[in-house]
Each structure stands twice: as C-alpha cells, then as structure tokens.
Design goal:
mainly alpha; 68% helix; 9 helices; Four Helix Bundle (Hemerythrin (Met), subunit A)
Length: 232
C-alpha cells in the first residue's frame, strides 16, 4: 500500500470513528445521563442503521462502497457542494449536540411517551427509506458529480419511482423526529438549519443532473417531485 492509499484509508477510518462512535453518543457524553433510555435508543438505531445500510449496499454494489470511501477526492465534483457538504455535516452534528446540552441544563419540557413512540417509528422509517435509496442506486455518492467513469445513468426504480432524491427525504424524516425522542425542543432549530441546507443542495444537485446527465430531464418530467410527493 502506497502513501496515498494509506492516507485515504486513515481518513476513512477517522471519519467512520467520528460518525459511528462519537456522533450517536453525543447526547449521552454531553449530558452524562447514562440512564437516558431515549439517547441509548438513538445511538443504537444510528449505529445499526449505518451498519445495515452499508452492508446491504456492499452486497449489491461493491463498487459503490469504494466510491463513497473516496469522498471529496474527485476532480469533477462541484466546488459549491464542498461547502454544502460541510454545512450538512454541521447540521447533523448540531442536532444531537444541542439535545445533549438541552438535557444537561434542562432547557426543554419532555414530550409524552406516545410522541416518543411515534418519533421512534418515524426515525426507523427515515433510515429504512434512506437505505432503500442507497441499495437501489449504485451512483449514490456523497458528492455532487457526474460519474462518467462508472457509467453514470438515471435510476428510476425503487423509491426513485416516486421522488427524485429519496435519500435526502429519509435523512430529513429521521432528523425531524429526533428532537422529540430526545426531549429537545431547541434541537428543532438545528433541524431547521439542516432542512434549509438540504433543500438548497437538492435544488442545486437536481439542476446539475438535468443539465449534465443524459436522460435525467425526461425522468424529471415523469417524476415531478424532488423530496415530498405533492409538495416539492
């Protein structure tokens, strides 16, 4: 293994540790409330969702995992997307971080048990929908670019029959339900920030695909909605 490959491997390992170990446990680490069952449920769902989705994707599209491992290492990715990716990551971090601070300092009144059960269902639905998109689309990369070297083409099967960017929809659904599960009304501010960034990224990415990916404009005429059928 040469130095470049070692650097890429090290970067991927560090990213995985931050994503799969630190991020889901932020509410517990910040609040020091180790008997907080909702935070444990959040962490377990997050880790299992990540592991299951990547495992299924690896079985169906092994080259997709290699593509995603080269995150932000492409010459033809869009410069504006690098900034948006950073903002998306920030939004995803802020939700559990604010929830942990909320629990530590008691800023919010707790939600009822029925609301938390519903939030768990919505979080699971969000992860399932995002996983469905991931395993259906072998071009589901982490950056906006046309993957000509991989034979990039329009995917119109699975969840892409009803919306053009189902992966973002799954992320938003799980994110919207997380503040309820973690009893953090202040986390909705972070969710609003993440939603705004993802809507902007969806619009810009869709424009790139319509201009640069053969057949996508025709697909967009058939599948009218980007994130939410009947709305947008």
């Amino acid at each position: 293994m040469d130095n470049q490959h070692r650097m890429v491997a090290t970067r991927v390992i560090v990213q995985l540790l931050l994503l799969v170990v630190l991020l889901p446990f932020l509410p517990l680490l910040i609040s020091c409330r180790w008997d907080w069952w909702e935070a444990w449920a959040y962490a377990i769902i997050f880790i299992l969702g990540f592991a299951i989705s990547r495992g299924l994707a690896a079985q169906r599209h092994p080259d997709l995992i290699a593509e995603r491992a080269r995150f932000a290492r492409h010459e033809n990715d869009k410069p504006w997307d690098r900034r948006l990716v950073a903002l998306v990551a920030l939004g995803l971090v802020l939700i559990p971080l604010v929830a942990g601070l909320d629990a530590r300092f008691g800023w919010s009144h707790p939600f009822g048990l029925s609301a938390k059960v519903l939030s768990l269902v919505l979080i699971l639905a969000g992860y399932a929908w995002g996983t469905y998109a991931l395993i259906e689309n072998r071009f589901f990369t982490g950056v906006v670019r046309i993957q000509t070297e991989r034979g990039h083409q329009v995917v119109s099967t699975g969840p892409y029959r009803w919306m053009r960017h189902p992966g973002y929809t799954g992320t938003l659904l799980a994110s919207l339900a997380t503040p309820i599960l973690l009893d953090s009304r202040w986390s909705f501010v972070s969710v609003a920030f993440l939603t705004a960034v993802l809507v902007l990224r969806t619009a810009l990415e869709d424009g790139v695909l319509q201009r640069e990916l053969p057949g996508y404009s025709e697909y967009a005429k058939r599948v009218r909605y980007r994130l939410l059928p009947g709305v947008w």
